[in-house]
Amino acid sequence: MELKERSNFFLVTYEELQQNPRGSVKRLCQILGKDLNSQQIDSVVENASFQKMKDNRMSNFSLVAEEFFREKKGKFMRKGKSRAWV
Question: Which EC number(s) does UniProt give (predicted)?
Answer without folding.
Answer: 2.8.2.-
